[in-house]
Amino acid sequence: MTETTQSDAAHGVIETNKNNAAGESVIKVGYHQNLTNEDLAPLRKQSWTWYNIFAFWMSDVHSVGGYVFAGSLFALGIAAWQVLVALIIGIVGVNILCNLVAKPSQQAGVPYPVTTRVAFGVKGANVAAIIRGLIAVAWYGIQTYLASVAFGLLALKFWPSLAQYDDVGRYGFLGLSLLGWAGFILMWILQAIVFWNGMETIRRFIDFCGPAVYVVMLALAIYLIAKAGWSHVSFDLAEGPGKHGWESVTAMISAVALVVSYFSGPMLNFGDFSRYASSFGEVKKGNFWGLPVNFLFFSLLVVCTVSAGATVIGKDDSGKIITDPVHIVDKIDNTTAAVLGVLTFAIATIGINIVANFVSPAFDFSNVAPTKITWRTGGMIAAVGSVLITPWNLYSNADAIHYTLDILGAVIGPLFGILIADFYLVKKQKIMVDDLFSMDPESTYAYRNGWNPVAVVAVVIGALAPIAVVIWGTTYASSFTWFIGAALGGVVYLGGMRTVPDRFVYGTPAARAKALA
């Protein structure tokens, strides 16, 4: 028996797999099996540096969706300086919020769904886990589909005869052409391979891909600007009359809200990654370089590329500026540049999909049934689910994607608000790590039979208002659903924990006394 093993045994620690996919963890003898597996337990060693967090955000930003989103902000019809001000305010806000949500997971060394046991209870945390997992499945499918389009365009560039297999009417199944299926399955397999090899492989993947994508993006921007001339580069991508006066102010406010909402998914489950950081200081440093600095530079690079691209390659068939980078590089005459560009953006999208929509549901679904669902199994459940929802049909139907994703997304706000209100205002930044894995009715997070009724009620009330806005409100109002949900969820939870009788929240007097100590 080694010295480490002897020390573990003396402290009641069970030996775990040192090569575990999600990282080597520490499981103690008293941890309940229905709450614990090697993927959910606290990490034995937290080794990520600020650069790993920085690379995480680079991978999160450098996607086809991120490119289109950044370009759309400059097409709102307001002056470029107003867009930049909105970008800075929005991304600084995201940076602050990410620091807040990162601390509990970094402090305890556990992923997001385990952290939510502090507020929801050891069983009630599955509410948050399932909601977040379903959102990730939908986005995973859509991002996989968007990246697969790049492979289809690349195949047609080299083998034009394949065009017949891109016809859904002749060679289609469930709304996707044979060529489309080939690209989707290829992307699906590539992502599964990276994921299956574990968090260490994912860390190395994003460490490399983040900077590598920047190199190609810079080369693409320089190429297009050189072809178009700097005089044809504009920071205003809006078409038609611009907004002025109060209308421009409301557009700026909307832009700020859109930036925060865009990052709401990875922001909520950022604990899945901050748990690996060696210190909270490393997290804050990585967030600063990965969010305000990185996103602002990325946005400026995007608008230069899109603007110059409009001159070099022209507009689409409807006369609109092309903001999708895959379609921009596909229209470039230089075959080498086009191939390199398409492959780069496909790889970039693999990066965001893995970090935002593969890792997170893996932890979420594992949290629901730790004895039956490992981290790898949870990820594959998400991957299979992403095919079953036929994301290409969802993406092509504006109403379907609006109601599906916006209604699911409306629930992200309350989950965030509850987590922050509980950790900082109710629990005063204290976590009893061992009690996160205890089914003892007198443990800190037992509440009522493992459920905190106040948290459940706060989610329902916090979600109803933003969902109502999505269904019956205006497009402008829908920009603020995250804020509405976060504020309502946090306020209702905080008010409930301070006013609802303790006997309603906690099952036993002993549990009540321990939780309030």
From TrEMBL:
Q: Which domain of life is it from?
A: Bacteria
A Gene Ontology cellular component where this protein is annotated is: plasma membrane
Q: CDD domains in the record, alphabetically?
A: SLC-NCS1sbd_u1
InterPro entries attached here? Pur-cyt_permease (IPR001248), Uracil/uridine/allantoin_perm (IPR045225)
Q: What does the UniProt entry say about where the protein is found?
A: Membrane
Record keywords: Membrane, Transmembrane, Transmembrane helix
Q: How does it sit in the membrane?
A: Multi-pass membrane protein
Q: Which Pfam families match?
A: Transp_cyt_pur
Instruction: List all membrane-crossing ranges.
Output: 67-97, 137-159, 171-196, 208-226, 246-268, 289-314, 334-356, 377-395, 407-426, 454-473, 479-496
**Per UniProt, what is one GO molecular function of this protein?**
nucleobase transmembrane transporter activity
**For this UniProt entry, what is the primary localization, expressed as one broad class?**
membrane
The family annotation for this protein states:
Belongs to the purine-cytosine permease (2.A.39) family.
Q: Which PANTHER family match?
A: NCS1 FAMILY NUCLEOBASE:CATION SYMPORTER-1 (PTHR30618:SF6), NCS1 FAMILY PURINE/PYRIMIDINE TRANSPORTER (PTHR30618)
Q: What is this protein called?
A: Nucleobase:cation symporter-1, NCS1 family
> To which species is this protein native?
Williamsia sterculiae
